[in-house]
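#struct-help
A.M.: can someone run this one for me? Single chain, 93 residues.
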Amino acid sequence: MGRVIVEVMPKPEILDPQGKAIATGLGRLGFTGFTGARQGKRFELEVDGPVTQEVLDAAAEAATQLLSNPVIEDVVSIRDASAEHSAQQVGQV
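D.P.: on it. Structure tokens below:
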């Protein structure tokens, strides 16, 4: 079974009160060096079989039609989760 990761973020010109609260909280907790934060959404779409280009194309279509609001959000990433998992194992992220 394959999995596709879709990430959606507010457009830069859209106010992000959750991101602002996160940025403020980081500073209060002693995490210095962060100058801002934005909060987005992550979707994990499971598919039967491997993640092919056709699956990624279908995920892109779903992302623009259902998973995001194109007026206020951008789809910033659509990728095969198995590639992400392999990278995490190698780098121990």
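A.M.: thanks! The longest strand covers residues 2-10.
D.P.: also worth noting: The domain at 2-91 is CATH 3.30.1280.10 (Mth169; Chain: A ,).
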